[in-house]
Protein backbone atom coordinates (compact mmCIF):
# COMPACT_ATOMS: atom_id res chain seq x y z
CA UNK A 1 0.00 0.00 0.00
CA UNK A 2 1.55 3.36 -1.00
CA UNK A 3 2.48 5.77 1.80
CA UNK A 4 2.14 9.52 1.28
CA UNK A 5 4.76 11.75 2.90
CA UNK A 6 3.75 15.39 3.36
CA UNK A 7 7.03 17.19 2.94
CA UNK A 8 6.19 20.89 2.54
CA UNK A 9 8.14 22.99 5.00
CA UNK A 10 4.88 24.87 5.38
CA UNK A 11 1.56 23.78 3.94
CA UNK A 12 -0.87 25.67 1.76
CA UNK A 13 -3.92 27.39 3.25
CA UNK A 14 -6.70 24.82 3.70
CA UNK A 15 -9.42 27.48 3.66
CA UNK A 16 -8.26 29.01 0.37
CA UNK A 17 -8.93 26.08 -1.96
CA UNK A 18 -11.28 26.70 -4.84
CA UNK A 19 -12.32 25.14 -8.15
CA UNK A 20 -10.54 26.56 -11.18
CA UNK A 21 -9.90 25.57 -14.78
CA UNK A 22 -6.78 23.54 -15.60
CA UNK A 23 -5.82 23.93 -19.27
CA UNK A 24 -3.79 20.87 -20.19
CA UNK A 25 -4.24 18.25 -22.89
CA UNK A 26 -7.78 18.11 -21.52
CA UNK A 27 -9.54 21.11 -19.98
CA UNK A 28 -10.85 20.22 -16.53
CA UNK A 29 -12.13 21.76 -13.30
CA UNK A 30 -9.72 21.10 -10.44
CA UNK A 31 -9.20 22.20 -6.85
CA UNK A 32 -6.44 24.80 -6.65
CA UNK A 33 -4.39 25.38 -3.50
CA UNK A 34 -2.80 28.73 -2.68
CA UNK A 35 -0.18 30.30 -0.44
CA UNK A 36 1.93 33.42 -0.28
CA UNK A 37 5.48 33.86 0.94
CA UNK A 38 9.05 34.51 -0.14
CA UNK A 39 10.28 31.90 -2.62
CA UNK A 40 13.24 31.57 -4.98
CA UNK A 41 12.12 32.52 -8.48
CA UNK A 42 13.45 33.32 -11.95
CA UNK A 43 11.66 34.54 -15.06
CA UNK A 44 13.35 33.66 -18.36
CA UNK A 45 12.01 36.20 -20.85
CA UNK A 46 13.83 34.60 -23.79
CA UNK A 47 12.50 31.07 -23.29
CA UNK A 48 9.21 32.34 -21.83
CA UNK A 49 9.20 30.24 -18.67
CA UNK A 50 8.87 30.88 -14.94
CA UNK A 51 11.04 28.82 -12.59
CA UNK A 52 10.17 28.56 -8.89
CA UNK A 53 11.71 26.54 -6.05
CA UNK A 54 9.63 25.46 -3.05
CA UNK A 55 11.40 24.05 0.03
CA UNK A 56 10.73 20.48 1.15
CA UNK A 57 11.69 18.52 4.25
CA UNK A 58 13.25 21.43 6.15
CA UNK A 59 15.30 22.55 3.17
CA UNK A 60 16.90 19.16 2.51
CA UNK A 61 15.12 18.98 -0.84
CA UNK A 62 13.23 21.31 -3.15
CA UNK A 63 10.32 21.13 -5.55
CA UNK A 64 11.29 22.92 -8.77
CA UNK A 65 8.49 23.92 -11.15
CA UNK A 66 8.86 25.10 -14.74
CA UNK A 67 5.77 26.94 -15.98
CA UNK A 68 5.52 28.30 -19.55
CA UNK A 69 4.22 31.85 -19.83
CA UNK A 70 1.28 30.71 -21.96
CA UNK A 71 -0.96 27.67 -22.40
CA UNK A 72 0.95 25.36 -24.74
CA UNK A 73 2.05 21.72 -25.10
CA UNK A 74 5.25 20.93 -23.20
CA UNK A 75 7.16 19.80 -26.31
CA UNK A 76 8.92 23.17 -26.70
CA UNK A 77 9.98 23.33 -23.06
CA UNK A 78 11.08 19.69 -23.15
CA UNK A 79 13.40 20.44 -26.10
CA UNK A 80 15.24 23.25 -24.32
CA UNK A 81 15.40 21.49 -20.94
CA UNK A 82 19.01 20.29 -20.81
CA UNK A 83 21.19 19.84 -17.70
CA UNK A 84 23.09 22.98 -18.71
CA UNK A 85 19.93 25.04 -19.15
CA UNK A 86 18.48 23.81 -15.87
CA UNK A 87 21.72 24.70 -14.10
CA UNK A 88 21.60 28.23 -15.52
CA UNK A 89 18.01 28.67 -14.33
CA UNK A 90 18.83 27.44 -10.84
CA UNK A 91 21.80 29.80 -10.56
CA UNK A 92 19.56 32.78 -11.31
CA UNK A 93 16.92 31.99 -8.70
CA UNK A 94 16.37 34.81 -6.20
CA UNK A 95 13.99 35.15 -3.28
CA UNK A 96 10.99 37.37 -3.96
CA UNK A 97 7.48 37.81 -2.59
CA UNK A 98 5.16 35.39 -4.41
CA UNK A 99 1.60 34.11 -4.54
CA UNK A 100 1.70 30.42 -5.51
CA UNK A 101 -1.31 28.52 -6.88
CA UNK A 102 -1.08 24.81 -7.74
CA UNK A 103 -3.63 22.18 -8.73
CA UNK A 104 -4.37 19.67 -5.98
CA UNK A 105 -3.52 16.44 -7.73
CA UNK A 106 -1.29 13.36 -7.71
CA UNK A 107 1.29 12.49 -10.36
CA UNK A 108 2.07 8.79 -10.76
CA UNK A 109 4.27 6.80 -13.11
CA UNK A 110 5.10 3.13 -13.58
CA UNK A 111 8.00 2.21 -15.86
CA UNK A 112 9.53 -1.08 -16.98
CA UNK A 113 13.27 -0.53 -16.73
CA UNK A 114 14.39 -3.64 -18.64
CA UNK A 115 15.09 -1.78 -21.89
CA UNK A 116 17.02 0.99 -20.12
CA UNK A 117 19.07 -1.38 -17.96
CA UNK A 118 19.90 -3.51 -20.98
CA UNK A 119 21.17 -0.41 -22.77
CA UNK A 120 23.54 0.13 -19.81
CA UNK A 121 24.94 -3.39 -20.23
CA UNK A 122 22.77 -5.39 -17.84
CA UNK A 123 21.77 -8.14 -20.28
CA UNK A 124 22.57 -11.50 -18.66
CA UNK A 125 20.06 -10.94 -15.84
CA UNK A 126 17.15 -11.50 -18.28
CA UNK A 127 18.68 -14.57 -19.95
CA UNK A 128 17.17 -17.79 -18.62
CA UNK A 129 20.28 -19.77 -19.65
CA UNK A 130 22.92 -17.37 -18.30
CA UNK A 131 21.39 -15.78 -15.21
CA UNK A 132 21.24 -17.67 -11.93
CA UNK A 133 19.49 -16.02 -8.96
CA UNK A 134 18.49 -19.33 -7.41
CA UNK A 135 20.57 -18.58 -4.32
CA UNK A 136 18.41 -15.56 -3.50
CA UNK A 137 14.97 -17.17 -3.34
CA UNK A 138 13.34 -20.54 -2.94
CA UNK A 139 11.43 -21.70 -5.99
CA UNK A 140 7.76 -22.69 -5.73
CA UNK A 141 7.19 -26.35 -4.87
CA UNK A 142 10.89 -26.94 -4.29
CA UNK A 143 11.57 -26.87 -8.03
CA UNK A 144 15.20 -26.81 -9.08
CA UNK A 145 16.84 -24.74 -11.77
CA UNK A 146 18.11 -21.27 -12.47
CA UNK A 147 16.17 -18.08 -11.78
CA UNK A 148 16.34 -15.01 -13.98
CA UNK A 149 14.71 -11.58 -13.93
CA UNK A 150 11.43 -11.24 -15.79
CA UNK A 151 11.20 -7.46 -15.37
CA UNK A 152 12.16 -4.50 -13.20
CA UNK A 153 9.37 -2.02 -12.49
CA UNK A 154 9.81 1.48 -11.08
CA UNK A 155 6.81 3.17 -9.46
CA UNK A 156 6.79 6.82 -8.37
CA UNK A 157 4.10 9.10 -6.99
CA UNK A 158 4.08 12.79 -6.08
CA UNK A 159 1.09 14.35 -4.32
CA UNK A 160 0.46 18.09 -4.53
CA UNK A 161 -1.71 18.67 -1.46
CA UNK A 162 -2.06 21.53 1.04
CA UNK A 163 -0.84 19.72 4.16
CA UNK A 164 2.58 20.50 5.58
CA UNK A 165 4.85 18.19 7.53
CA UNK A 166 4.62 17.66 11.30
CA UNK A 167 7.47 20.11 11.86
CA UNK A 168 5.27 22.90 10.49
CA UNK A 169 3.56 23.32 13.85
CA UNK A 170 6.92 24.04 15.48
CA UNK A 171 7.57 26.99 13.19
CA UNK A 172 6.55 30.31 14.70
CA UNK A 173 7.86 32.78 12.16
CA UNK A 174 5.71 33.56 9.14
CA UNK A 175 7.06 34.11 5.64
CA UNK A 176 7.48 37.79 4.94
CA UNK A 177 5.39 39.11 2.08
CA UNK A 178 6.49 42.49 0.81
CA UNK A 179 4.46 44.64 -1.54
CA UNK A 180 2.57 43.15 -4.44
CA UNK A 181 3.59 39.49 -4.83
CA UNK A 182 4.65 37.92 -8.13
CA UNK A 183 2.02 35.47 -9.36
CA UNK A 184 2.87 31.85 -10.12
CA UNK A 185 -0.48 30.50 -11.25
CA UNK A 186 -0.07 26.91 -12.47
CA UNK A 187 -3.39 26.52 -14.28
CA UNK A 188 -1.78 24.94 -17.37
CA UNK A 189 0.78 22.26 -18.21
CA UNK A 190 4.10 22.46 -16.33
CA UNK A 191 7.21 20.41 -15.55
CA UNK A 192 7.94 19.33 -11.98
CA UNK A 193 11.19 18.12 -10.39
CA UNK A 194 12.32 17.12 -6.89
CA UNK A 195 15.94 18.08 -6.21
CA UNK A 196 18.24 16.95 -3.40
CA UNK A 197 19.81 20.17 -2.12
CA UNK A 198 22.94 18.56 -0.66
CA UNK A 199 24.07 16.97 -3.93
CA UNK A 200 21.98 18.77 -6.56
CA UNK A 201 20.77 15.41 -7.87
CA UNK A 202 17.29 15.17 -9.36
CA UNK A 203 15.29 12.60 -7.40
CA UNK A 204 12.18 12.85 -9.57
CA UNK A 205 11.25 14.53 -12.83
CA UNK A 206 7.91 14.58 -14.57
CA UNK A 207 5.20 16.72 -16.07
CA UNK A 208 1.61 17.58 -15.33
CA UNK A 209 -0.24 18.05 -18.59
CA UNK A 210 -3.58 16.67 -17.45
CA UNK A 211 -5.30 17.04 -14.09
CA UNK A 212 -8.22 14.79 -13.24
CA UNK A 213 -11.51 16.62 -12.78
CA UNK A 214 -14.83 17.40 -14.39
CA UNK A 215 -14.47 18.21 -18.09
CA UNK A 216 -15.19 21.69 -19.39
CA UNK A 217 -17.68 22.31 -22.18
CA UNK A 218 -17.50 25.05 -24.78
CA UNK A 219 -19.97 27.81 -24.12
CA UNK A 220 -21.98 29.02 -27.10
TrEMBL record:
Gene3D superfamilies with a match to the protein in the record: Alpha-1-antitrypsin, domain 1, Antithrombin, subunit I, domain 2
Gene Ontology BP annotations: collagen fibril organization
Domain annotation Serpin: ranges: 1-211
Single GO MF annotation: serine-type endopeptidase inhibitor activity
GO cellular component: endoplasmic reticulum; extracellular space
Family: Belongs to the serpin family.
Protein name: Serpin domain-containing protein
Origin species: Anguilla anguilla
